[in-house]
Design brief:
mainly alpha
Length: 322
């Protein structure tokens, strides 16, 4: 029984971390219409930044700064935000399809840099030597994982509440106005380029938070953790859950992560031995089928965006007739 509970805590922790990442993407795509094809680059920047800033000295690569954990996590988020600011200045004036290609190129370049620049982040061996916070007091057992899950859950709730307030504010309405008709927003004296950059950086900082928590949970990060597959997983979570709806983003994250882990277990358990060599490839195909199927069957997602019509200026008679 304890083993089942331990696995459920592990599953829920990973799903909650991915939910934070999906919320960051939802701000960019669901609310602003920015097609970020390089999700994994900003996720990875948060993970690598946190472990390098908070890790112990290691031979052969940058690190060993030994910052306290909150400072290391904030540093990873800041690194993701800085990278997003630079990328945003160079790419956000592109059309949706070109923006997607450009940001996907950033993700590929980031993965190749982490894999080949051994002096920077250990190359293919990754970043090690990170002491999980409070590990000396709590150990590495079930209690530690449970408390870490509670911390991740509280951060997920905080990010959700922040984004709910943001999208309900005048700034959030401006984001949706730019998403729907950029020229109309510009005619009202707004600056779409500046607003889009702000949303892109904010969403990337949230992605960096998710990456930092991911790196903390595993106390290790390598180029295998920043492959393009993760970008497609996070996009699938948002598409299935419902772009523009923060609840849908969280629901999609738990649903797709559950389907991913269940499919891996089923293939390893029931597939023929010769087919088990291709389990990973089969799961990648599954993600593609889910994305295409949802776009054809229910493009708005399982929990679609809730459109709110402003009542300002409406007459009492008009309100009664609604």
């Amino acid at each position: 029984m304890i083993g089942v509970i331990s696995y459920l805590v592990f599953f829920a922790t990973t799903a909650a971390i991915l939910s934070i990442a999906v919320l960051g993407l939802n701000l960019q795509w669901g609310n602003t219409g920015l097609f970020n094809g390089g999700v994994v680059a900003f996720f990875g920047a948060g993970a690598y930044g946190t472990l390098i800033l908070g890790g112990t000295p290691q031979d052969g690569h940058l690190g060993g700064f030994g910052l306290i954990y909150p400072a290391a996590l904030l540093g990873g988020m800041a690194l993701a935000g800085l990278m997003a600011w630079i990328v945003g200045l160079l790419t956000l004036r592109l059309r949706h399809d070109y923006l997607a290609i450009a940001t996907f190129g950033v993700a590929v370049a980031f993965e190749n840099l982490m894999r080949n620049a051994e002096w920077l982040a250990g190359g293919a061996k990754g970043v090690r030597g990170f002491e999980r916070p409070l590990r000396a007091a709590l150990g590495d057992g079930f209690l530690y994982n449970l408390l870490f899950f509670i911390v991740v859950l509280l951060l997920l709730i905080a990010v959700y509440m922040f984004l709910e307030r943001l999208v309900a504010s005048p700034f959030g309405r401006l984001l949706r106005a730019i998403r729907e008709d950029e020229e109309a927003a510009k005619s009202l004296g707004k600056s779409p380029a500046r607003i889009r950059l702000t949303a892109f950086v904010t969403g990337s900082v949230i992605l960096g938070l998710a990456g930092g928590l991911y790196g903390t949970f595993y106390a290790f990060v390598s180029p295998q953790d920043v492959l393009p597959t993760l970008t497609f997983q996070i996009w699938a979570m948002l598409i299935v859950g419902g772009a523009g709806n923060n609840r849908g983003a969280i629901f999609g994250a738990f649903l797709i992560w559950g389907a991913w882990t269940a499919s891996g277990w089923a293939l390893s358990r029931f597939a023929p031995i010769e087919a088990q060599l291709y389990t990973g490839s089969m799961q990648f195909v599954l993600i593609g089928v889910v994305i295409v199927g949802m776009l054809m069957w229910r493009p708005q997602g399982l929990l679609p965006e809730r459109l709110v019509v402003s009542q300002r200026g409406a007459t009492p008679l008009a309100k009664q007739g609604e």
